[in-house]
Amino acid sequence: MTAVLDYPQLKAALSKELPGIEIQADGSFLLVSPEDMHKVCERLTSLPSIQMDYLTNLTAADYSEYIEIIFHLNSITHNTSATVKTRLTDKKNPKMASVVDIWRGAELQEREIYDLFGVFFENHIGLKRIFLWEGFEGYPLRKDFVNGH
């Protein structure tokens, strides 16, 4: 069985490695600003004591104030898991850095989030729609989506 990392300890380790980056530790996840997410993800993979080397799932949820991007991560080496989230408050132009350079498996998952939620992943290697056709208007998993418009 995979053990969930202790989030206050994880926050302390990352804060030590990345001074100046604000990280919040909830009981069940870390919350990081979109601007700092790529740096945090890099450290989550490279710190020998953490080594989150497997992106299990990357998904999104639309709330009235923001779009939340959720990372479910595992360390195969340490048999641990963690959840890291970020919140994109600019719902008209939601964007953040791609993590495909960290976890190759993010390529398809970022395309899915782009296609269904409209989140633009900067520096993605091939960001385009994956389920819907080019020219489809809107993002069907957004709360403001109106069918047929």
What are the SSEs and their pairings?
Blueprint: E1 3-4, H1 7-17, E2 23-25, E3 30-32, H2 37-46, E4 54-62, E5 67-75, E6 80-88, E7 95-97, H3 106-117, E8 120-122
Parallel strand pairs: 1-6, 3-6, 7-8
Antiparallel strand pairs: 2-3, 4-5, 5-6
Walk me through what this model shows.
The protein is α/β, with parallel strands linked by helices and 149 residues long. 22% of the residues lie in helices and 28% in strands. The protein has three helices and eight strands, in the order βαββαββββαβ. A hairpin with a 4-residue loop joins β2 (23-25) and β3 (30-32). It is globular and about 45 Å long.
Low-pLDDT runs: none
Count of strand segments: 8
Q: How much strand content do the residues show? A: 25-35%
Structural Rg: 16 Å
Q: How many individual helices?
A: 3
Please name the fourth-level CATH homologous superfamily of the domain at 3-94.
NADH:ubiquinone oxidoreductase Nqo5 subunit
Structural class: alpha/beta
Per CATH, the class of the domain at 3-94 reads: Alpha Beta
Question: What name does CATH use for the topology of the domain at 3-94?
Answer: Beta Polymerase, domain 2
From the spread of the alpha carbons, the general shape counts as globular
**Biggest beta sheet attributes:** 6 strands, mixed
What CATH architecture label of the domain at 3-94 applies?
A: 2-Layer Sandwich
Give the overall pLDDT as a whole number.
94
* Helix amount: 10-25%
First-last Cα distance? 46 Å
Q: What are the secondary-structure elements, in order, as H or E?
A: EHEEHEEEEHE
Family: Belongs to the complex I 30 kDa subunit family.
EC number: 1.6.5.3
Organism: Dehalococcoides mccartyi
Enzyme class: oxidoreductase
